[in-house]
Design a protein that fits this description.
single chain, alpha/beta, Nucleotidyltransferase, domain 5, five-stranded mixed beta sheet, 6 helices, 5 strands
């Protein structure tokens, strides 16, 4: 059973990101403040849910939350500032979009940077403990998947529709055969034998 709030603040915002370990595409974050009456028996960490359940939950979260925001930070920026900083930047950008402003922020994971003067707490495996972080994980994942499905049309040989940019055997093989695209993160180890890849 996921918990509602971590703090005593009513406007507590949960935030999470998706796509941190991918070789291509953005890292995407979401921030959600749930209404005090929100209840959902299916909602859980997005990694525990099927694609069908995530797609089912997205409009419910959007409709029933008090407020939410979603932000992509793209590969060029990831290469520039590294994936950890890009993940935190995406979370900050998603929090910027929400009104009313949160009084407290709970973050999935163990790394975050202060967002203005709003108190926060990092919670390891928070997406499996708190409803608002689970809701943020579902939004981040579904928005990112939607984006990867779109760019799949441009470069179908990498099968991003299926692997969403993660380092599957098939994705690495496609990189070996076709090289890299503008969507690949050049700072990542795209192939085990990186030195042989001409980028």
């Amino acid at each position: 059973m996921l918990l509602k709030n971590h703090s005593n603040f009513e406007l507590e915002c949960g935030t999470d990101e998706a796509g941190r370990g991918c070789l291509a595409g953005p890292v995407t974050a979401a921030a959600v403040i749930l209404s005090p009456t929100f209840k959902n028996s299916i909602l859980n960490d997005s990694k525990q849910l099927s694609e069908r359940k995530r797609d089912l939950l997205r409009p419910i979260i959007e409709l029933e939350s008090l407020t939410f925001g979603v932000a992509h930070v793209f590969q060029e920026k990831i290469d520039q500032i590294n994936i950890l900083n890009a993940s935190i930047l995406a979370m900050h950008q998603s929090i910027t979009q929400i009104t009313p402003k949160p009084e407290f922020i709970i973050v999935d994971g163990n790394r975050f940077k202060p967002f203005g003067d709003i108190p926060f707490e990092t919670i390891i495996k928070g997406d499996g403990k708190y409803l608002s972080i689970a809701a943020a994980s579902v939004l981040a994942k579904t928005y990112r998947d939607e984006y990867m499905n779109t760019i799949h049309e441009e470069f179908p040989m990498y099968n991003w529709k299926q692997n969403k940019g993660y380092p599957t055997k098939e994705h690495r093989e496609a990189i070996r055969i076709y090289g890299v695209t503008k969507y690949h993160r050049k700072s990542f180890r795209l192939l085990p034998e990186q030195l042989k890849l001409d980028i």
